[in-house]
Amino acid sequence: MALAQNLSSKWISVSEPHPHVLHVELARQARKPVNAFSSELWAEYGALLDKITHEGRDVRALVLSSALPKLFTAGIDIADLSKTETDFPDGARKSLSTYHHLKEFQHAIGAPERCSFPIIAAVHGLVVGLGIDIISACDIRYAAEGTQFTIKEVDVGLAADIGTLAYLPKAVGNQSLLREVAYTSRLFSAAEAERMGLLSTVVPGGREEVIAAALKLASVIASKSPIAVSSTKRILLHSRDHSASDNLEYTAAWNSAALQTNDIPETLRATKSRSAPAFVPLRKAAAKL
Amino acid sequence: MALAQNLSSKWISVSEPHPHVLHVELARQARKPVNAFSSELWAEYGALLDKITHEGRDVRALVLSSALPKLFTAGIDIADLSKTETDFPDGARKSLSTYHHLKEFQHAIGAPERCSFPIIAAVHGLVVGLGIDIISACDIRYAAEGTQFTIKEVDVGLAADIGTLAYLPKAVGNQSLLREVAYTSRLFSAAEAERMGLLSTVVPGGREEVIAAALKLASVIASKSPIAVSSTKRILLHSRDHSASDNLEYTAAWNSAALQTNDIPETLRATKSRSAPAFVPLRKAAAKL
Amino acid sequence: MALAQNLSSKWISVSEPHPHVLHVELARQARKPVNAFSSELWAEYGALLDKITHEGRDVRALVLSSALPKLFTAGIDIADLSKTETDFPDGARKSLSTYHHLKEFQHAIGAPERCSFPIIAAVHGLVVGLGIDIISACDIRYAAEGTQFTIKEVDVGLAADIGTLAYLPKAVGNQSLLREVAYTSRLFSAAEAERMGLLSTVVPGGREEVIAAALKLASVIASKSPIAVSSTKRILLHSRDHSASDNLEYTAAWNSAALQTNDIPETLRATKSRSAPAFVPLRKAAAKL
Amino acid sequence: MALAQNLSSKWISVSEPHPHVLHVELARQARKPVNAFSSELWAEYGALLDKITHEGRDVRALVLSSALPKLFTAGIDIADLSKTETDFPDGARKSLSTYHHLKEFQHAIGAPERCSFPIIAAVHGLVVGLGIDIISACDIRYAAEGTQFTIKEVDVGLAADIGTLAYLPKAVGNQSLLREVAYTSRLFSAAEAERMGLLSTVVPGGREEVIAAALKLASVIASKSPIAVSSTKRILLHSRDHSASDNLEYTAAWNSAALQTNDIPETLRATKSRSAPAFVPLRKAAAKL
Amino acid sequence: MALAQNLSSKWISVSEPHPHVLHVELARQARKPVNAFSSELWAEYGALLDKITHEGRDVRALVLSSALPKLFTAGIDIADLSKTETDFPDGARKSLSTYHHLKEFQHAIGAPERCSFPIIAAVHGLVVGLGIDIISACDIRYAAEGTQFTIKEVDVGLAADIGTLAYLPKAVGNQSLLREVAYTSRLFSAAEAERMGLLSTVVPGGREEVIAAALKLASVIASKSPIAVSSTKRILLHSRDHSASDNLEYTAAWNSAALQTNDIPETLRATKSRSAPAFVPLRKAAAKL
Amino acid sequence: MALAQNLSSKWISVSEPHPHVLHVELARQARKPVNAFSSELWAEYGALLDKITHEGRDVRALVLSSALPKLFTAGIDIADLSKTETDFPDGARKSLSTYHHLKEFQHAIGAPERCSFPIIAAVHGLVVGLGIDIISACDIRYAAEGTQFTIKEVDVGLAADIGTLAYLPKAVGNQSLLREVAYTSRLFSAAEAERMGLLSTVVPGGREEVIAAALKLASVIASKSPIAVSSTKRILLHSRDHSASDNLEYTAAWNSAALQTNDIPETLRATKSRSAPAFVPLRKAAAKL
User: What biological process terms from GO does the record include (chains A, B, C, D, E, F) (predicted)?
Assistant: First the structure.
């Protein structure tokens, strides 16, 4: 079965431009603002990533981008907010409903952390509000040179609650600048984002160039041992949230099993024979698809 | 009541240059070195910020700077150290006295974290020793281009113990450079500080320019929903000290209540009517002042 | 006794170029690739640092570099891996053996964190695989301008498990770029390393220049109070792995004792008399050597 | 709709003996040993609890017991283990498959922690292996006087990995006794279990008596405010895994919303009028069912 | 100055029945239910303990009891709740006000943890709601044999939020029983409380007997080295909230200073001379009072 | 080689009363008080346990007891304390020396946690001061019925700093009683210790009976799969210091490797054939001895 088969949906298109590499594009242009995220869209997004994981498809890297010419995403669809139920018996039950909604929303946007492969966000144009939550939960961020970002939530009267404030402070290296843009909702450029430590690199050009660069990176990652890459991802996520000594202990436990992989002799064999190594899928399920 | 009323004290002057914005200036010039912090001064500093919080004044952003032309602060007042009591019955009781003194000192300098609004440090000239502790506990740091910094404590024979080593490693993005300047007490420039991730930006010009830039930023923040800004600050402080999943859980609990604010419809109303939104104070007490 | 006496071993040479400063050079050139780390070498490396600490030698700063002209280290010695035992009664016992091996390996490479003095890694040429683990566990990193780095493990089929993924995410300020180089094993330059926040500085020139710069820094550190420097190191390591409030509490407890040092009056005396301060060793044992 | 409608399945029967109280009975007697847990059964068990939560059914307490006369559960179905796949390409991929299997298994058995209402385990006869994991994840444990327990895993050659060792040490008050029974797999009586702190109480009599006592407790809980009970459960689970100060902070955030409930005036009204209070369901969805 | 001087207030009487021992009695009998806690009373309670600490009075143990014949406390004063402000501009600001109220309330009830000396709660009669929060934050609990307890909050429609759920799970050894009484608000006896691990002992007799026993214990504690007792308290509080290894590290740092006390030679001297040791106060301030 | 060969030393005798079971007896009777721990003795004790682990001897359970008729240990040897060096250049260096001494001391007494097999302390007579630290770090505690315990440190002017306050609060189920005996240094009986949750059981009789009971338990443990027992110990130690979810994650990683053991089929084989299972040693080194 083709890797991308049955994955595209209403507003998300999925293709396999390189072996083991998926390209996921957000394409909600039917209404304005375009690529605005309704509940339906973010549920679709989370479900897509969980489906790939659940089915054990042999994906080894994924690029996330926008199909639209001018922006990555306009953030949350405000029109969608107005559909919120309002007739709750009391403030506590209303809060509880909000709490469960937020947990579900966070779960969907946090899906990249549950994938065994790296996800590269390739952004261009405008990245607004929820767009920042989305790319914060990805592994790697590439931006086209004209990209502009805004943590828009404060401008709408709320604190970002879907991941931006949980992931971003741990991903960047300038808390002063991060707080400045979080408190003001002001636009910040790709250059500022890079200075803050948000981006791997700023890619000269626009949408096509940044996607090309991200796909190239993805195909390099996809050529590596999936045991090595997925273990690295897991250990890095653990490292972010634990002390160095806790992480070393976890890593020793994890690698005591992971080192029993044929990918190690396979890389040695390939090096000696000057050929490309060939790695079997991580999970058997992949073979069945 | 004017927002800044009854806040100025012996060595600290407080004004309200923009609505909901306080400007706090350190101005201890009576003796040399100027702006050196005696116990009395840091107690005054902590008490000022706690008083604003306790009274629920409707402050939405605060700029901290020095009133003196050549430096932000010379750090701790060495003369003050010599007043330390010495006749303790034994080493344990002496240590206990020191411990309580340090806790009180840390509490005063950590006051910005107890404020519901952001604090922007606008520095120029020299920032020495305790000056680094002070700005490390602030939300945002702006420096004039000629500013020089020194973590002076090692040069005096001790480890920085009032906040520098607790806050700074979590605020910047280059631990190698941070350790270098912490171990050597050498001066480092605004450019190096920016490269380390300590500063939002280096402002061309001197004291006046950096204060003007900080006040401009403060007035932007002050125009935003105080529920949104204060929730963002609280969640960012929590994020620094907890895992991503712990923070997401806390954020969902917090925002389940905070989202029940009129600031959200008010921002939508203002956007539609192309007018500035008007937000009521966070706390009722503010109205009484 | 000379500070470096009896410290050199088979592949590691140790000298004392400045008072209280050790220079440790890796020099395993007998076989190819040079400076590849066998079990024997990393055990020697960890034992050297622990011996210095255990004997209480009056070391106040240490520079780690390579004696070879073209590289810092080629990483793990692959030939050494092939000596691994294979006839285990079952997979669990094999994993357990691997687990114990990894813990021992991590312990050796983590030795810099157990030293009371700062360790400065001065690198040039190639820094491969284990080389990254080694410098990640040091306090400060200097690189010659042509240096190239690679987190090589993924290319060999495994996740880095000796410290890179535990220490590095907490030392740098761009997780996106860190993950990119960790997932791809690609070479990255000193300039990229600096941008990531890995290096204090890039030193123009090659091996000699970077070592000279590091030794100069070491001699500055060695001129400071050893109580101040070692307390700063301890508190910074604690800060990395604990919340700000936990760290402030620990610091108050630690400094309540450390402030009872004569190094404080000695620095004041030296400042007044415009002479260099003289500090006694941290530990008595030092006197005996 | 009746509360228990559409919940019973192949080996689990569900009834509603009191308003808002579910009684869940394990009844896998088709084969020997009876009530042994196959993958199918534990998946069914986890799915049942998640379904109740997901549908927002107005359950306020749940009693879990066994329908069989002689035992609560025989633990894992050994026959099921033999179906495990064996032809993995290497040890790492086999371990990864095991890892994912364990996570799924843990997730199912940990379902009680995801329910908003308390779950009371009412056990009799033998409680073996997985039976301990299951009751450890419940809120409250009642045992008939003749009940015998065994942490059976060590006798089968493995450490308990589905919850016993994660939940139990935090639930009881005698780690010495807990380790003794964990290391030996020996049977321990209800009296010993009570002394260890595992049980609320030992109920005189057998299966019927313990179920009656648990249902009585459940109906008391079901008569209370669901906001109060579910908030208490959430805060207790948080308390187990966080420091006291972290928990106080979380509780203040949580209750700042939860206190806006009509359940508080409703309880006051009921007290004054000497009538039973009536509480609306926690979630709207409940009304639709 | 007598130790208890100027400490008694409107509803709290303070005496010094033994040297260095304070007896604090709650005596709010003016209205029904007696000893119900208004905001005024709990503020008074917290302020009393903080005043003792702040002034450095030479208190070495404190007994907390009720002056009333029939109960320890009736819990929160419901009449007081009705004074709560209600006209908030929106739900978020109302929640924020509640949040700040809860934090202040928790701070007052948590005051015993900020005292350097142990606090022994000696209870009799009924201990209701807030009474449980209060005794949970104390070091030691003694109860007269007829005492009855109830975690009353669920009966009023809320989760206990002032300390019961934060402190109690970490203080007792039977989470099943704790959850049972927390979910039901049912009365539980001193015998059950002891079985749960809540009490040091159940004292035969009533109010007078339990107070006598607690005072006797207090006078034993007061005869010990205050450095030893206060260090033990501090380390135990740290131990509750940190891992064993973190606690050992903190303890080594703390005791490296605390062991430099004359209390150690003083105890040896007293032992040899068969006399009672005499210890100087912990803090100098004590001498001045 | 016999399991106990070359393990006995000056004051510690080691034998192998059952296969894979070591009996370690403290026997320092040359001077008064007997079994008092000098630095030499505790260093010997820690080294013994680490030697067993390091050599990979096939020990599967260990019983620790005293060879003397009247007591387990008199605690620290006061005479030894007086040998402490006193001529430090300043208070900070003295504290640092103390700190390093305490860390080394804690490391020795914490050795049981580094053993892969359970350690059962079998105590009788008096258990004083350091004796409590020692048994707190063991897995299981048995006491003869007349045993008396005292946390003696407060009586000597210090807080227990070698493990009692780090391990005990997490091992027992009554913090009120624990604090009472920690603050008073009073003797408490085996019955009280059992009520507190400190002991698995109180064994009728004296020294011989409690040792016999402990050896019997040890031989049961030694008959089990060493993979199962050692994994259980490791996971229980992790569980004590981490959240439930962290522990479940670690357990899944650990057991993904540990489940690949032949001990599982071996137990099934033995069950079917009604014979005793035979397990190979955990580590190969064992075979060589």
Answer: fatty acid metabolic process
